[in-house]
């Protein structure tokens, strides 16, 4: 499918340009409506910032996924599109009015159940009973949606993470046995993330809001699980390893102290780094450097090195977490 690559490049550029322009329009709308994220004791910013930039991201991503599904002749894409649209709607209501955690979780679980129909196969490649494979995929996906939302707490981090993940997915798909049918979807996600990033870079002019971070986490979760279902287990684990480690270790620490893990807080490693004196962009640069190393290891693992890259990936993440835990410039 060599013809897919120039189309993917064009889609990424078009998505980036469209998202940049759409974010500019959404920013004006949010300001006129007075929809702001106002600082509180759990915030990492000190001035009101418009919240809801995800309207622009999802407004571009959904049509891009539709186009990708049509070009690939993949009707199962409609399951992902419907789930993305539904999650965006529920999350927008949550941004505006607030919803109970249970309601949000039910909506996310319904979206995951729908999205499972779009996976290319079992994630464990037949090593597990079908019901167990499906259950593990659903739990992993639901967890990733929430952790991506949890990790969207400083300027630029979500856009930078989405960009790194999609670059890794595209490079893995370019390998001789890579799942190149994922390239168009990854290009669409990466393009929208890049288009939004200039508006969200420190100091951010606009925030994603749940309307952006929840569906974006869902789309990235689908791409990562699709990698696993295509046999690229190493990449599916290594690429998001920093996000997995920061969020999981932080919540485990909070749970051990008996604190409600679902409540907003400022205890992730990246948030503690900001509180310790590092600027938002310095923190994102450190995470980005680690992510680039993870991309290289994921590609090397899938190309020839196999699971031997996993200890190196753990080492990379450990170094990033150590750097963030220092906190000082």
Topology:
Layout (H helix, E strand, L loop, with lengths): L3 H30 L2 E2 L11 E2 L3 H19 L4 H20 L4 H15 L14 H21 L6 H17 L9 H18 L9 H20 L3 H6 L2 H16 L12 H7 L4 H26 L3 H18 L3
Antiparallel strand pairs: 1-2
Helix pairs in contact: 1-2, 1-7, 2-3, 2-7, 2-8, 3-4, 3-8, 4-5, 5-8, 5-10, 6-7, 6-8, 6-12, 10-13, 11-13, 12-13
Residue fraction in strands: under 5%
Describe the sheet with the most strands.
Answer: 2 strands, antiparallel
Number of strands: 2
Strand ordering within the main sheet: 1-2
**How much helix is in the residues?**
over 70%
State the low-pLDDT regions, or none. none
- What is the mean pLDDT? 94
Category by helix and strand content: mainly alpha
Cα distance spanning the termini: 47 Å
Order of helices and strands: HEEHHHHHHHHHHHH
Radius of gyration: 19 Å
Continuous helix count: 13
Tell me the overall shape: globular
What is the compact description of this entry?
The protein has helices at residues 4-33, 54-72, 77-96, 101-115, 130-150, 157-173, 183-200, 210-229, 233-238, 241-256, 269-275, 280-305, 309-326; strands spanning 36-37, 49-50.
What can you tell me about this protein's structure?
This protein has 329 residues and is an all-alpha fold. It has a domain at 4-233. It contains 13 helices and two strands; from the N terminus they run H-E-E-H-H-H-H-H-H-H-H-H-H-H-H. It has a two-stranded antiparallel ribbon. Helix 6 (157-173) runs parallel beside helix 8. The protein starts with a helix and ends with a helix.
């Amino acid at each position: 499918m060599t013809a897919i690559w120039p189309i993917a490049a064009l889609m990424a550029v078009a998505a980036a340009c469209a998202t940049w322009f759409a974010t500019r329009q959404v920013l004006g709308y949010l300001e006129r409506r007075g929809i702001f994220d106002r600082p509180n004791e759990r915030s990492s910013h000190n001035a009101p910032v418009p919240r809801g930039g995800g309207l622009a991201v999802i407004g571009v991503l959904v049509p891009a996924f539709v186009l990708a599904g049509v070009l690939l002749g993949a009707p199962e894409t409609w399951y992902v599109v419907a789930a993305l649209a539904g999650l965006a709607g529920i999350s927008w209501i949550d941004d505006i009015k607030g919803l109970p955690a249970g309601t949000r979780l039910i909506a996310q679980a319904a979206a995951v159940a729908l999205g499972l129909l779009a996976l290319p196969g079992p994630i464990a490649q037949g090593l597990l009973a079908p019901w167990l494979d499906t259950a593990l995929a659903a739990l992993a996906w639901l967890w990733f949606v929430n952790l991506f939302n949890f990790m969207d707490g400083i300027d630029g981090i979500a856009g930078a993470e989405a960009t790194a993940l999609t670059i890794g997915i595209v490079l893995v798909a370019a390998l001789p046995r890579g799942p190149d049918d994922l390239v168009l979807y990854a290009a669409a996600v990466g393009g929208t993330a890049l288009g939004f990033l200039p508006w969200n870079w420190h100091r951010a002019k606009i925030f994603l809001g749940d309307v952006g971070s929840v569906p974006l986490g869902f789309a990235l979760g689908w791409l990562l699980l699709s990698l696993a279902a295509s046999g690229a287990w190493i990449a599916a684990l290594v690429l998001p390893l920093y996000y997995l480690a920061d969020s999981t270790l932080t919540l485990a620490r909070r749970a051990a102290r008996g604190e409600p893990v679902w409540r907003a807080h400022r205890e992730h490693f990246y948030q503690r780094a900001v509180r310790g004196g590092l600027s938002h962009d310095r923190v994102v640069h450190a995470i980005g450097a680690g992510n680039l190393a993870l991309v290289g290891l994921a590609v090397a693992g899938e190309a020839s090195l196999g699971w031997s890259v996993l200890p190196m990936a753990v080492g990379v993440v450990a170094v990033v977490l150590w750097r963030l835990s220092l906190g000082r410039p």
